[in-house]
Amino acid sequence: xDIRPGDLLTMKKxxxxxxxxxxxxxxxxxxxxxxVKCSREFMVPRNKIEKNIKNVKRTDxxxxx
Length: 65
Known about the structure:
9% of the residues lie in helices and 40% in strands. The protein is mostly beta strands. A five-stranded antiparallel β-sheet has the order 4-3-2-1-5. The termini are far apart.
């Protein structure tokens, strides 16, 4: 699965704060994600994330900083 930094992931399960949207900060063998609602950052192994993704919203290359 092609997931890049800057993508917005909609997950199957909610974060404990109630949001199910995560912002990708870093991708590789593990992902560094930030919860959109509470801004908590955490690292998760790639295999756990890939099976729990419902949707990927990609930002345009021109919008990235």
